[in-house]
Q: What sequence folds into this?
């Protein structure tokens, strides 16, 4: 009986920890779309969008500098600003 109680307590603890992490995992994987202009910065590239600037990770956008683009990726908010991990990019025809 004592082992069964330990098992139940362990199972409840594992479920509690997993349920606390699940929303963060789901949120982090959500892809978003932004539209903005690709600009060269000191450390790489940024997308200048209407709602702010996004530091680019994951793709070389050197051939898109100065162009209006639609970017799909995962956005991370940080102390130094927003970053987008680019999954796809397309030039927008004005």
A:
């Amino acid at each position: 009986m004592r082992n069964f109680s330990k098992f139940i307590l362990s199972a409840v603890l594992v479920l509690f920890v997993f349920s606390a992490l699940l929303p963060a995992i789901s949120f982090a994987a959500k892809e978003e779309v932004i539209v903005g202009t690709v600009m060269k910065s000191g450390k790489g590239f940024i997308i200048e969008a209407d709602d702010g600037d996004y530091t680019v990770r994951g793709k070389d956008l050197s051939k898109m500098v100065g162009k209006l683009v639609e970017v799909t990726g995962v956005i991370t908010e940080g102390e130094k600003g927003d970053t987008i991990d680019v999954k796809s990019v397309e030039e927008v025809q004005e």
Summary: Residues 31-91 form a domain with the OB fold (Dihydrolipoamide Acetyltransferase, E2P) fold (CATH 2.40.50). The first strand starts at residue 31 and ends at 41. The mean pLDDT is 83. The beta strands are 31-41, 44-49, 52-57, 68-78, 81-91.
